[in-house]
Amino acid sequence: MGSGSVDLLVLDTHVWIWLVNGGPERLLEGATDVIRRASVESALAVSAISVWEVAMLESKGRLQLQMECLEWVAESTRRAGLRVLPLSPEIAVASTRLPGDPHGDPSDRIIVATARHESAILVTRDRALLGYAAQGYLRAIEA
What we know:
Elements: E1 9-11, H1 13-20, H2 29-40, E2 44-47, H3 48-59, H4 69-80, E3 83-85, H5 89-94, H6 106-117, E4 121-124, H7 127-134, E5 139-142
Parallel strand pairs: 1-2, 1-4, 2-3, 4-5
């Protein structure tokens, strides 16, 4: 991006939940600052698979939402100033062909492929994904 702009950030699902569901204090201060700047610049996103993950967590009772799930998604994206990136055929195929030894979880592979496809920075606390980034396959910031 040009000077003065911030890179697109893709939030891992847990980071999105922490950001909007009463847990932003769980985020590292540096990550919070970067997320805030990206939000102001309209450079904040989540993968469509994160919507599915939130819905699955909520349906299994592992996540409590204060409203119906689809309404939570709409409200949380609006409040956080982020957009949902679609799961395109290119991202779906790329998730099966990631270099190195990526995370085995299909959702995490799609999130990684989304970030790589968008030339974005992934914001995560997931140790496996941070390790994958340390190998040079992904740009990431620890949340």
